[in-house]
Amino acid sequence: MANHQKESAKDIFLDIVICIAGSMIYAAGVNCFVSPNDISSGGVTGLAILINYLWDLPIGASMFALNIPLFIVSFVVLGWRFIVKTLFSTFLTSLFIDIGVYFMPAYSGDKLLAALFGGALMGAGLGIIFTRGSTSGGTDILSRLLRKKIPHISMGRLMMMCDMCIALLAGVVYKNIESILYATIVFLVSSKAIDFVLYGASSGKMMMIITSKSDEIAKAITQETPRGVSILPVQGAYTGEKKHMLLSVVRPHEVAKMRKIVRRFDEHPFIIISDASEILGLGFKPTDNDL
């Protein structure tokens, strides 16, 4: 019981520290690059930036107020634990955005650079927040709700699709096409940054090896590499020949070594190598039901 309480306290502490870090990075992207250059960041934050542009209301406070309806929906669908984390991270993000206006330096140079760096910082901040099973509200919540139905699409791509509507609105408010184009750059860079933070460390290659030397190759793989391997029976449709398929997931830099091991035992294997964007499990990224 004591160990369990100790682990829970440690998790709560990590949640707080990581959410603070992610919120500060996100706020820096908004205050330093996006808002000063009249670029929409998409989602509820983008709406808050447009409200600030039109009526000079605080971005953070507007963002928190706009999130309230989504908080109610997420409480019903995703549960109270998720909403507690989301409320906390949204509050921090809103707070740091409004406070950061007074001490974060605003970049007023090339708008393209502002869009690139703003998107990178905002995406990195959101990705860090997502790693603890939370969001910063807005389309982050909407994307998480959608991912319950379509889990094969990454969080960053879902957010990008949701945010395109805000980009069109920004073009109307700022009264120029360039605002839509710069907003699109922010979305693309931000979604890539989110995916890199969430999945980059666990990206790898999936290898499917059809061979008649499955036992020897599997034994060599488990002894000479840190990777596991599964053996599946297969049969050729034309020849009717029965073989085995070895299934293994490896880091990109381990592919060459795996191929050498295979060819040591079988000179004519059939190998399929494909990208694995998200890998959950031993040796990669811990399983997290919230992501």
Could you list some keywords that capture this structure?
291 residues, Alpha-Beta Plaits, 10 helices, 63% helix
CA gyration radius, whole angstroms:
23 Å
Sum up the overall morphology in one term: elongated
Number of β-strand runs:
4
Secondary-structure class: alpha+beta
Cα end-to-end separation: 27 Å
- The proportion of residues in beta strands is 5-15%
Largest sheet, order of strands side by side? 2-3-1-4
Largest sheet: 4 strands, antiparallel
> With helices defined by DSSP (H or I, 4 residues minimum), what is the helix count?
10
Q: Kindly state the mean pLDDT as a whole number?
A: 85
Question: What's the SSE blueprint?
Answer:
Elements: H1 2-34, H2 43-55, H3 59-78, H4 80-100, H5 111-130, H6 139-149, H7 155-174, H8 177-199, E1 204-211, H9 214-224, E2 230-235, E3 242-250, H10 255-265, E4 270-276
Antiparallel strand pairs: 1-3, 1-4, 2-3
Would you give an account of this structure?
There is one protein chain. This protein is α+β, with helices and mostly antiparallel strands. The chain folds into two domains: 200 residues, no CATH class; 74 residues, Alpha-Beta Plaits (2-Layer Sandwich), CATH 3.30.70. Helix content is 63%, strand content 10%. The protein is built from ten helices and four strands, in the order H-H-H-H-H-H-H-H-E-H-E-E-H-E. The chain has a four-stranded antiparallel beta sheet with strand order 2-3-1-4, with helices on one face. Strand 2 and strand 3 form a beta hairpin. The mean pLDDT is 85.
